[in-house]
Amino acid sequence: MINKITTDKFSKIETPFYYYDLDLLRSTLNVIKKEADNSGYKIHYAVKANSNPRILKIIAGYGFGADCVSFNEIDAAIVAGFNASDIVFAGVGKTDKDINAALNTGIYCFNCESIPEMEVINQLATAQNKSALIALRINPYIEAHTHKYITTGIEESKFGINTWELDDVIKKLSDFKNIRLIGIHFHIGSQITRMSVFKSLCARINELQVWFSSHNINLEIINVGGGLGIDYENPETNPDFPGYFSLLNEFIDLYPGQELHIEPGRSIVGQCGSLISKVLFIKNGSNTLFAIIDAGMTDLIRPALYQAHHKIENLTSAGNILRYDVVGPVCESSDTFAKFIELPETKRGDIIAIRSAGAYGEVMAMRYNLRDLPKAVFSDDL
Ligand SMILES: *Cc1c(COP(=O)(O)O)cnc(C)c1O
Quick check: 155 pLDDT over 90? Predict the structure, then answer.
């Protein structure tokens, strides 16, 4: 929680920095763990959402697996305590170097996105005298109703194998002696808040299951990916894990012996992080007041990249409500966190919290303008 006590402590720390509320993280993890245990579904945390070593270590402690998109992520996951045998490797453009390293490490499964990729994994596995397990990421053509940059399962997406290619995939599989198909995988987008989208995915999966079984292919794993959204208006709330799990339970027809896998990223780490910043200047614009803060798009790029909205709070003012454009110091007009939002009267030195920044925040930080990377501060240490 962010309150008067935490704010007093923030005032002594150099800004900007990410503040992680580890109690909130643990409470989120407890909720999802309970759902996973009750349903028997297996969780692979999507490391790309937040790969801070301390966060990874806490998540690993819950016994989840990891979903990684580079060998560096696989390595970070293992260092944090995830078992190699619980790691899946996703991504549309895996390099030979990363595939070799993953084979060498003995990860669980490659989520493959094309026939050429299957061919290369088979080649490299043969050269290492190994057999690799693969799941096929299939494009289910489902509109996720989220921002177009985080929509990944529609016809024009670069992700996943098209269903019209599946006949070919199956033919090729018999030639590829060093890979073995164990499942199918989907990931249709991120920050999905319409539950009906997941229901459509379930229906599509059921159809594909019929197709695979008519081709005498036994699938051990159905992996529905991640994508469950969080409530950016209410930063202290958990996502609707119970609703999500019961929807999957109700609408996916699992065959006997099949396991269901889920890859949540944002829904686990989104709410526990806030970007804490100080106001540098208040500047008069023609139509607005600018609150220029010391955090910028280099620290949190989501608003510039996806037109994302984060709740912004002035932690140190209780003045009259005015309207501000909250902007960063970076030399780009897209370095804007919010336009014309209500804040209590804000002045130089006030502490600003940009909430729900735990996912796709610190991991996307960069050094444009040669700015320092933001540091991380943990509630357990305050
Ligand atoms: C990014 C990603 C996820 C996690 O998505 P969230 O929206 O953060 O839950 C899961 N699976 C794959 C394959 C991904 O690329």
Answer: no
